[in-house]
Amino acid sequence: MKNYNCYVAFLCDLMAIELPNLNYHYKNEYYDAYGIEIEPFELKPSAKATTVLNENTIYIDLERFKDEMDIYISLAHEVRHCAQYQATEDIGLADIATPNLINQWKKEFKQYSASDVEEYENQSIELDANAFAWFIGRAVFNIEVTVNCNQNLLMQYKRYIANTFSLDEVKECLEYSDFQYSRNNA
Q1: Per-residue pLDDT tens for 60-108?
Q2: What integer best gives the mean pLDDT of the chain?
Q3: What is the pLDDT of residue 178?
Q4: Which contacts of 177-183 are long-range, i.e. CB under 8 A and separated by 24 or more positions?
Q5: Residue 52: which residues within 8 A CB-CB, separation 6 or more?
Q6: Positive or negative, the Cα torsion across 172, 170, 68, 138?
Q7: Distance between CA atoms of 40 and 91, rounded to whole angstroms?
Q8: How far does CA 33 lie from the centroid of its chain?
Q9: 57 bridge partner residues
Q10: I need a labelling partner for 149 at 20 to 30 A (CA). Which of 11, 135, 155, 158 fits?
């Protein structure tokens, strides 16, 4: 059993948000971030992970990923959704977007189209989460993350994310965290 607590804590520290709960499924076992058995959960067939925002909980099915890097990138995406929600609810210190963008997120959270709806990936909340995952891929793992969405729209979010978080901030948060990454793990 592998958990990703330190990595998620690093992402939360970077965005100054409250740490979400993590719940995993792997080999017919369901457990939380501390390895304690939990009630089984089910994800939509189109999802590898999902976030229940009002519970600040990420559910992740580790068996649906092609490799560990896919898990890291997905967790960055889901943690960004937690940050978006916290920003819309004025929770904690999350200062991650403009007031206009936060208002857009509020609207989209009320009428969210999930991964089983065509064009869901072009919603502002999805574009932003994908841009954050792209940034983490480049800044932490030195990989290029590609996403199936409107690339022109995504580019705007990539620019915003890249201008919001400096590489020095990422490095500082990584050094502060206990997250250890080795290319041999992914």
Answers
A1: 999 999 999 999 999 999 999 999 999 999 887 667 888 899 999 998 9
A2: 89
A3: 84
A4: 177/6, 177/7, 177/9, 177/10, 177/13, 178/6, 178/9, 179/6, 179/7, 179/9, 179/10, 180/6, 181/7, 181/72, 181/140, 181/141
A5: 59
A6: negative
A7: 29
A8: 16
A9: 21, 52
A10: 11
- pTM for the full predicted model: 0.91
Tell me, what's the pLDDT at 114? 59
Task: Tell me the two tokens of residue 40.
Answer: 């089984």
Place of tokens 């857009």: 104
SS3 string, the chain, reads CCCCHHHHHHHHHHHCCCCCEEEEEECCEEEECCCCECCCCCCCCCCCEEEEHHHCEEEEEHHHCCCHHHHHHHHHHHHHHHHHHHHHCCCCCCCCCCHHHHHHHHHHHHCCCCCCCCCHHHCHHHHHHHHHHHHHHHHHHCCCCCCCCCHHHHHHHHHHHHHHCCHHHHHHHHHHCCCCCCCCCC
